Amino acid sequence: MVMKFLSAMGGFLFAAMAICLLSSCVLRPPAPRTFEEQQAWMAKQQCMQEASDMNPEAPFSTNPYWNDYFIMCMNRFGIPDSVIRRMWY
Questions:
Q1: Could you give the CA distance from residue 27 to residue 85 in angstroms, rounded to a whole number?
Q2: Are 70 and 52 in contact (CB under 8 A)?
Q3: Distance between CA atoms of 62 and 40, rounded to whole angstroms?
Q4: What does pTM read for this prediction?
Q5: In a 3-state reduction of DSSP, which class is residue 1?
Q6: Residues of the chain whose pLDDT is less than 70?
Q7: How far is CA 6 from CA 2, 11, 17, 18, 73, in A?
Q8: ∠ CA(35), CA(41), CA(43), 5° rounding?
């Protein structure tokens, strides 16, 4: 009888701990962006607009010219290719 109670309590405690851990991950607000991340995000927005202005018929990465112009623009702002890849993938 005592063993059944303890095993039931163990399952309950495990479930309660799991819920607490998961909720702490989910409910946490995102970390604020660093200065470099903010600059990269603003460069991305500007480069997306410039690339779309240059190639209005097929925006975004489906058009190779759009993609090439976007990467050239991001590199012009000093954003390395590794950061560009992290933004999209």
A1: 27
A2: no
A3: 22
A4: 0.60
A5: coil
A6: 1-27, 58-61, 89
A7: 6, 9, 16, 18, 63
A8: 105
